[in-house]
Amino acid sequence: MSVELERRAALADRVGRLERMLEIRRTEESIQAMFAEGLVKGTTHTCQGQEAVAVAVAAATTQADVVTCTYRGHGHALALGMTPTSVIGEVLGKTVGSIGGVGGSMHLSDLTIGLLPTFAIVGAGIPVAVGAAIGRRATGTDAIGVATFGDGATNIGAFHEALNLAKVWDVPVVFLCENNLYGEYSRIDRTTPFEDLYRRGAAYDIPSRAVDGQDVDTLVDELSVEFEAARAESSPRFVEVKTYRFVGHSRSDTAPYRRSGELDEWLDRDPIQILGDRLVAEGVLSEEARAALESDVAERIDRATDDVKAAEAPGIEAMFAHVRAGSSI
Amino acid sequence: MSVELERRAALADRVGRLERMLEIRRTEESIQAMFAEGLVKGTTHTCQGQEAVAVAVAAATTQADVVTCTYRGHGHALALGMTPTSVIGEVLGKTVGSIGGVGGSMHLSDLTIGLLPTFAIVGAGIPVAVGAAIGRRATGTDAIGVATFGDGATNIGAFHEALNLAKVWDVPVVFLCENNLYGEYSRIDRTTPFEDLYRRGAAYDIPSRAVDGQDVDTLVDELSVEFEAARAESSPRFVEVKTYRFVGHSRSDTAPYRRSGELDEWLDRDPIQILGDRLVAEGVLSEEARAALESDVAERIDRATDDVKAAEAPGIEAMFAHVRAGSSI
Amino acid sequence: MLMRMNQAIAAGLRDEMRADPSVVVWGEDVAEAEGVFKATVGLHEEFGDRVRDTPISEMGFLGAAVGAAATGLRPVVEIMFIEFLGVALDQLVTEAAFYRYLSGGEVSVPLVVRGSVGGGLGFGAQHSQTLERWLIGSPGITVAMPSGARTAYGLIRAATRDDDPVVVLEPRALYAEREDFDPSDDHIIPLGTGELVQHGDDVTLVAMGNTVSVAKHAAREAAWTADVIDLLTIQPWDRNLVFESVARTGRLVVVEESPWSGGWGTDIVSAVAGELLDELRAPVVRVTTPDVPVPFAPDLEARYLPTSDEVVAQVDALLASGRSIGPWWTREGATR
Amino acid sequence: MLMRMNQAIAAGLRDEMRADPSVVVWGEDVAEAEGVFKATVGLHEEFGDRVRDTPISEMGFLGAAVGAAATGLRPVVEIMFIEFLGVALDQLVTEAAFYRYLSGGEVSVPLVVRGSVGGGLGFGAQHSQTLERWLIGSPGITVAMPSGARTAYGLIRAATRDDDPVVVLEPRALYAEREDFDPSDDHIIPLGTGELVQHGDDVTLVAMGNTVSVAKHAAREAAWTADVIDLLTIQPWDRNLVFESVARTGRLVVVEESPWSGGWGTDIVSAVAGELLDELRAPVVRVTTPDVPVPFAPDLEARYLPTSDEVVAQVDALLASGRSIGPWWTREGATR
Ligand SMILES: Cc1ncc(C[n+]2csc(CCOP(=O)(O)OP(=O)(O)O)c2C)c(N)n1
Ligand SMILES: Cc1ncc(C[n+]2csc(CCOP(=O)(O)OP(=O)(O)O)c2C)c(N)n1
Ligand SMILES: [Mg+2]
Ligand SMILES: [Mg+2]
Questions:
Q1: Which residue minimizes the CA distance to atom 2 of ligand 1?
Q2: Residue range C273-295: average pLDDT?
Q3: What is the pTM of this model?
Q4: What secondary structure, in 3-state letters, does B231-254 show?
């Protein structure tokens, strides 16, 4: 079993979920720090605050399922099993990166863990997930597709066409909207008629509901119910996950546009805090064990970051490989 | 006042509406006959059975309002005031045509009567109507935009984006869906989760309702209520008009895909029959006057058809004019 | 056997679907109605659910085809008129075209997009263009265009077997044209290879789709003789075939059903001007459509499209004076 | 005054909005946030509702802009990265481009689409292309590309005043570049006119956008001298300026930030090969990007983009041997 699949399996355990959320948080922080230092060009979109969503999606899917996600995809990739070295490596454009450094922060990929190349175009992954579910089913599996996307993406045509198509074709795909209340610098109320986006599912007669995205325990349960329903009935589901990004939209954004007090309210619902506290309260983890876990993860990410910094940059051949079958220089 | 605007004004009168519906019916029949004879190349989409919708839209709008419609646009153009010669002339590619014969059946235009160039791309006219309402309002009028489109068009992205945008920007535009149950050769139940398309308006918090499209009297009243509400409140409305096309999708289509009995049911609700019978029953028209009206219109369209056949084809200069400002040969 | 081009396409799809269960066909009215242009006749009957009608949602079903192709199917998607790609282009050129690259070679997208193209049938400005220029320059995408039933059959089969996205642009005016051939594996045409369909010495005429018959006709009528090349694939195009011929004839006239600006011939002319200049005995000429929307009026549409008379006039001038006379509309005083 | 290109664009929009109340600016985060690239700074504050943020709905707001332009406004729409046009292309090239024609001249569409383009900043494969090829060949659409603050100001103003759709492709890498000029009507640049920015005798270098500085730098470093032309508008492009120069120098090298296949230079090379063959003393050369997705890794992206070293190498070869050495990747053995 590959290290990625082992990492995926580790999410069966609640402590494993806490550890993964910590790993995502530290990885994103490390990436942001490198951008701040000017070590990386371009842009990056991190997901601090939304870690529980990524972990719950990975925990509630099986290996055969296919997930599409966006430029804000580091958390999903790590949750599905991609290693921090692979994620950070891609962000820094190194050969150890997910696709060898030719993609950058917005382009991670590993179909062996069910992750299609992540999407830099808003909404583009939504119809693709519909097709991926069809493709997987055609090979005799009972797999489902999971399209993850943001609140802002519900205003783009591809969202509408994909949900309608999935319904009329009875495709086992779950449309999972991470409603973090902002699309780039615009709050949802300025771009969308209402905040409860699950209501949009009715336009396609797709069973739809909203769930809390900060408590990974309940989220895994709720998503499992929806995923298994889609799987069993071979029909689509729409799930709106209420969450929030604790950071700006992308590298340089300080998020001056937030409603005052909003960030603090959500910081009180930090998914890592919530699960950590509960595991300690339940006696599953001791305070010491929790602290040790946090420092272990921090160390591991620091090491991965250093490894990546020391790693090789791709050579000219990487630019001409995989353009089409057999292309090379 | 131009002949077109006089024709538009004539719809204030119920007999005028009956006459216009007859005119639309005969014009479409004449066009279909010429295609059948092989007098015209290309394709045409006629609207027999949907005449009341075109006439009611024209009767319920003012001169400043802007209407976008589709390739199935002959009826709307005639209702808004375009002359049969102009419509038939364009279909035959003659200089007397609406745009001089360079467009053909799918491309009619006359902004002086509120008609933007008709759209050959499904859904394309929907966001354009939103912008036209904004443009007209900017010039200080209280105009509204009216986007007319079919049931099939509610599955395309432009529909979704336009309705959302109109709502968040409070644009006075009415989205008028002519639900004739078929998109090309596919019945609505095979492409759309439900037939009551007005329900899709809820995804945008847009007031929405369905109305009967075969009785022009009630339809004018219902549309007037919605149009005036959009005008007064400067906000969008979604109206689903239940109707049916008595003919195939386009020139050669014999519509073998219809549900058995469906056509007959709808033929019993012929908008021309309904209004004609009622006007006679109410004593507004005598049987003789009704018969005279029918033969007058038939004659008029025959004459217009002959005139067009005898009219000139455009010269080479028409191909280079109006490509961009000042272009010519 | 005598076959119409639309029948040949259906036959090509049928043969691929029989050979490979992963081939599926999706599009608007391609299943029960067997296609607006009857290019999928018999497929739904024989293959059932593998042939599906879609809602009017090009972005939706093209995107779904990309996802299905990435996970093991070989979808063949019909875009009824190529202009409709304008509402879905992202999925083809920004997603499908980049997947192999953006997956480090792990994910391939064996997707075929069939689109009807071109003028001559009176469909008007928004249903008559060829638009190959939206695709050329998108790395990873192959773009082919048949010139009749045989080549349509051969290209459709090759496209379906290819492991990268292939767009087959089908000249609408040729769907009803008959050609005599026996559909079989022998007729599969390797993508990227053109055909020398007529031999001559004075000039090389490079054509594609509707213009192949225009070029052949011109070469038959004229006082001079020509190599006529049916390009068949425009991306990547057959350099060796074109260069070998031009090196021999010393003259190149590209006959394109595409606009003067950005037409597909510009790639070929540029390559020749860059690498065969010394072999050229005359200026390189392009016979194209003018930079105007496709007009509907029959006489105008006929005038708009490249004609064999114009090809003859251009080559005559090259041979007589060694100079190019410029496109007909500039001779008649068109302004931009 | 010293200005960054994004400041110059904002200044151009501001001046047009002051001069004409029908000018409005729409796009994602262009109002309150003043633009992702800060090219609309100050506009919302000064003009209020005339500057509007949109939902993420390119087809919706571009379509609305077409309708608004058809009914009396002059919308300037921002497409944040030009690739996003792939979800909305229909409204620009199939609707807006044809309205004047399809209304018999009654309806004009004074629409401006601003899109950021190009590489060099590490935005990766789906956010780094120029994609002018999606627009070239669409009748009625003007396509311009500035090379710095002054030309951006001049082109934005001209575009906003034009009565037909104009697309201004803004090289993203230049937004932060400073240039010293005083914004005023004198700086308005007529669409369709290029500028001869450097004079020389041995070769004509035609460049646009990011490659203008590449070409200038090459011409400064080299042993030969060159006319360097900043094209500024690619559709319609400045024939007279290019032809006059090439007729004099006898050599043409086009420096393009666009792919070898379908790059904008092919139109220019084709025209020259068709009309100036006798004046050419050497093959026509194109310095372009290879036909691959824009790679992210910094060294690779730098290698991907046209460099002044490559321009020098190409011209050196033309002058030395009269032959073209071919693009760098074929010299290094790239296969298609
Ligand atoms: C078609 C398209 N339009 C615009 C963008 C620019 N863009 C990138 S992310 C983003 C905001 C998306 O917001 P949301 O869907 O809520 O996802 P989030 O970033 O909050 O995760 C925008 C507008 C894009 N990438 N693609
Ligand atoms: C984007 C796009 N896709 C497909 C077509 C082909 N097409 C033309 S009309 C039509 C059916 C439209 O059905 P509906 O919206 O119900 O309108 P109706 O024809 O019934 O009036 C289709 C699929 C098109 N013109 N544009
Ligand atoms: Mg969001
Ligand atoms: Mg319909």
A1: A122
A2: 97
A3: 0.98
A4: HHHCCCEEEEEECCCCCCCCCCCC
